[in-house]
Amino acid sequence: MSCTDWKIEGSRGESIHGTTHDPESVAVGVVLIGHGFKGYKDYGMLPWLAEQFVKSGWIAHRFNFSHSGMLAEDGPFVRPDLFEAASWNTQVEDLEILTKALQVEGIPTIILGHSRGGLASLLALGRGAVEVDGIISLSAPSQCNQLTAETQQVLLQDGFIESPSSRTNQVLRVGANFLQEQLDDPEGHDLLALLETNKNNVLLIHGEDDPTVPVAAAHAIHAVLPASTLKPIPGGDHVFNTQNPFPVDDAPSVQLQEVWDAIANWL
User: Fold this and answer.
1) How far apart are CA 130 and CA 121, in angstroms?
2) Vertex 186, ends 181 and 188: CA angle to 5°?
3) pLDDT band at 199, cuts 50/70/90?
């Protein structure tokens, strides 16, 4: 297995930084792996999952969304200005660009997204922005706008709300455009309505003890996607009981192993 770092132009001209894992044998598929809110391509379980895909013959592309605030490194958020400018639209645009650039003729392409990355993947699917053979959603919310009315008012009035990072001790900002784009296009951000007519293969995996995004979100998505596969993980939290950083050669948690087993069966 070999790994290659790369970058391409993403949403609104900003760079998407990525790492590709290539299998030693002829590839059987391509998977794009997207991180969650305040996450990045090297976060926790993502490199481990990439290696499991590669062992199964898949090309795995881990990447940082263009407006994640992260570039190629795994340290602090070096572009907090980009983090502040992030929106659902920037993430969907990134996924559209990546799927077109990285798919390989003759083999399937799927997207795996964690948390916000999972919602963005489903949103891109619902909008018809990506042509893929399947989506794997880990711990994803079921609604784009989860802000309280009071928080929305502050965001629009002040132009931002603060969002501290416990990992880096930076005080990041969520910009008003995150909400304004949703208010300007409510239909384009109504995830459940957008998915109602979708017939793509979707695997929904969610920890039953997730304190960040309740497992009810996965059930809500599954309800509008009856052909989807829902796999609750008993005892699983938002990151399936996996620390960050997580060495790829360490033994996975029971919950993370169950995640991979569900993925392998679905593939």
Assistant:
1) 9
2) 85
3) confident
Contact 141, 217 (CB under 8 A): yes
Query: Does 103 map to a domain?
Result: yes
Give the three-class secondary structure for 69: coil
Sign of the C-alpha dihedral computed for residues 1, 120, 202 and 145 taken in this order: positive
User: β-strands 109-114, 29-34: how paired?
Assistant: parallel
Structure tokens at 27: 């590839």
pLDDT of residue 213: 98
Q: Which residue range is the domain that position 228 belongs to?
A: 2-143+197-266
176-184 vs 88-102: helix crossing angle, rounded to 10: 80
| pLDDT tens digits, one per residue of 14-29 | 999 999 999 999 999 9
HSE-up (13 A, CA, CB side) for residue 260: 19
